[in-house]
From TrEMBL:
<comment type="similarity">
    <text>Belongs to the GMC oxidoreductase family.</text>
</comment>
<dbReference type="InterPro" id="IPR036188">
    <property type="entry name" value="FAD/NAD-bd_sf"/>
</dbReference>
<dbReference type="Pfam" id="PF00732">
    <property type="entry name" value="GMC_oxred_N"/>
</dbReference>
<protein>
    <recommendedName>
        <fullName>Glucose-methanol-choline oxidoreductase N-terminal domain-containing protein</fullName>
    </recommendedName>
</protein>
<feature type="domain" description="Glucose-methanol-choline oxidoreductase N-terminal">
    <location>
        <begin position="7"/>
        <end position="231"/>
    </location>
</feature>
<dbReference type="InterPro" id="IPR000172">
    <property type="entry name" value="GMC_OxRdtase_N"/>
</dbReference>
<dbReference type="InterPro" id="IPR051473">
    <property type="entry name" value="P2Ox-like"/>
</dbReference>
<keyword id="KW-0274">FAD</keyword>
<keyword id="KW-0560">Oxidoreductase</keyword>
<keyword id="KW-0285">Flavoprotein</keyword>
Amino acid sequence: MKHEEFDVIVVGSGVCGATIAREMSRQGRKVLMLERGGSAPARESLAGIAGIADEVRLGERKLATVRALTTGGSTSMYFAVANMPPLELFRAHGIELADDLEAVRRELPIAALPDRLLMAKARRLRASAIELGHDWRKNEMLIDASQCDSGYRYEAKWKALDYVEDALAAGATLIQRAMVVRVLREGGRAIGVEYRRRKGFGSELRQAYAKKVVLAAGELATPTMLRDCGVDGVGARGFFCNPGYGVYGLVPGLGGGEEGFVGSMSCHLDDGIELGDANVARVLHRPMMLAALRFRHLLSYGDCVGVGVKVKDGLGGRLEADGRLRKGFDHRDQVRLDQGRREAVRLLERAGAKHIFDVGLRAAGRIGGLIRIGEHVDGKLETSLRGLHVCDGSIIPDDMRGTPTVSLICLARHLSRHLLAAT
Ligand SMILES: Cc1cc2nc3c(=O)[nH]c(=O)nc-3n(C[C@H](O)[C@H](O)[C@H](O)COP(=O)(O)OP(=O)(O)OC[C@H]3O[C@@H](n4cnc5c(N)ncnc54)[C@H](O)[C@@H]3O)c2cc1C
């Protein structure tokens, strides 16, 4: 390994890492994917999720987010809501994604769920939201509805693992349980990485070399790596984390035992507050209610209806020297969090729910603002250390709304074109 040189090394096999590896290896480039996690889960189960989920605390008030450390990254446990990239916003950063978006839409199953896949809970929520005057709409999802006879199916969601498998079929190399600890540099260029490979009960340090290195380790890992490379100002403006609540109640007699896809519908209130369907599959419902010590809700899956609240917070907090993130909220954020929670309760009450509670303040699976296009990376997503690029959730602009996965696939395709031209 030490003397073998690759065209590109991608650090992490999430949405961006997998897409770049697939695009590059299909064009005959020699690609190495280094992935910190293993292969779990082969299918969705409580043990499978527990084995890959990594909870990351963000502050003093039990604020936390979660990521998946496994091949395919966080899409192994995401909800598959597919908001489209804001093309104008990326254009303003010198990045043109229109053709990529068109290609992605042609290739992937992106559509709103058909009515037959909306379960009793989702239908009840929609009825009460509309009665209260909300513009409650279906979201597009990365779900192949033709694979779902009646309701939820984990396998029907598109996942980055699909692209990892395509990359492997096209000749890419994947090393799992390989945690990159350092970017190797020579002069002002990145020439490879050093990684720790787990082996039995121990581990060993190895190096790998390439013409190009892409950090795609996710929004929680990449900023620290980039700062360690000496790139100035990473994290200087703080970060956003889209905080919010899951609010749940019991609607006696609803009795919809079927499982649906969480996030299938939502609405936007004024001032950056979003409410959505938070009716998770059974496999997530159980540990969530257990952690909240809500046994009645735990045992009444069919009657338990959930509303998610998400608030667009401003930049703030800090990235500590040890890589930990800390964030508090200002008065405006707090007012909107309270307003969103109150509206979620009103929606549940309207739906006939009793025993309403929230599971505590969480950061929605998206942190950002630490790395900025135009400041830390250029339009080719390259850093001031030549040959070192960044492509993952950490570069999503802080004024972008909505879910990031489709934008990330497009950004990864955009970067792949530049890498192909340069290798
Ligand atoms: C519960 C949940 C629900 C979500 N729902 C949605 C949704 O509905 N729609 C949507 O668009 N988005 C959703 N997201 C967000 C979405 O999953 C992520 O934004 C997206 O997967 C991020 O992709 P990425 O390429 O940035 O990195 P990731 O998916 O985080 O992948 C990074 C990879 O790098 C690996 N890695 C980390 N450090 C190292 C290292 N040092 N060395 C080697 N490898 C490393 C990790 O193990 C991981 O595999 C959700 C997230 C969560 C957690």
